[in-house]
Amino acid sequence: MSVTGTSLIGRRTAGASTAGPSTAGTSPGSRARRMPMGLDIVIRDAVPACLPRERPPYAAPGPAARPRRLIARESGEYLFVGLRGTGGASPARKPAADVLLGPGDICFYDVHQPPELDFPRQARLKVFLLSRALLGLAHSDVPRLTHAPVTPTSRLGALLSPFLSDFADTAAVSRSPVGDMLAWNAVSLLSTLAGEQLADQGGQEPGTRAPLMSDILDFIDLRLSDADLSPETIARAHHISVRYLHKLFREEGTTVGRLIQRRRLAECRRALTLRSAENTTIAAVAHRWGFASPTHFSRVFRAAYGMSPSEWREFAGRGDREAGG
Fold first, then answer.
1. Mind listing the pLDDT tens digit for each residue in 118-151?
2. pLDDT in tens, 272-316
3. What share of the chain is helix, strand, coil (3-state, %, to 5)?
4. Strand order of the sheet with strand 106-110?
5. Which helix (H) or strand (E) holds 69?
6. Is the peptide bond before 149 cis (omega within 30 degrees of 0)?
């Protein structure tokens, strides 16, 4: 079962790498590699610069919104994260504002409605294509996430920009289990980056909500395995009311329950990927990370990632079996 969605629009390059289960079709001047976990990597040096796109699974009613224009005046390397499973192009509203990019910037975009690029001839594009569900994103998160780039001067940008760049270069020569672990790390870091970007749009002044939310998130992460973790226990531990706790999370664009479930699912997904846990039952993994019911766990896991926990484990382990012959 594939989690990569529809095929990329374009022709397969004769020199494209075919390592791994399959290689996404790309335009001339591109190299592509399909990694584990439904992650495709495309490197483009073609002029004029353009991003991989996919046809939406169905035609959206009404005219599509005019794509925003990304402008770069400096030669160098630019990183993009193409989100699949976004539901297709959105109806036209007000014109999208132009965005200026610098080398090393990381920019999320919708593969069904990619931005137009105005880049110098020497620019190189490194594009990571994956399902929005793989990052734990809701449909409503996509427009917010694609609003602004992540610069390499930001806290997470300084970590991810060089990592993603090196990962794209080494992906073509890395084999399981190295390639699998690199793919897992890339997806985990991109999920963290997406969550941080959405949280930063809460709009509160520094020194008011942010320190408290940081403490709350740390508290949740340390107690994910506790099946009794609840808004009441979180609020009591931080000496605030449950009502105020819910207000803080509304300002972050999420809910307490959704965040806890998303982080628990991410830990379960990681555990099901590890070869060291291949003899552990799925029910034990679910219980370890706070899911009291294996049936409920399987249902929410499928809703988040498009496959059951057993299918995920099979998908994640496929590369090791192929490498071992």
1. 999 889 999 999 988 778 777 778 888 888 899 9
2. 877 666 778 999 999 999 998 999 999 999 887 778 898 888 776
3. 45, 15, 40
4. 30-35, 39-44, 124-131, 77-84, 106-110
5. strand 69-72
6. no
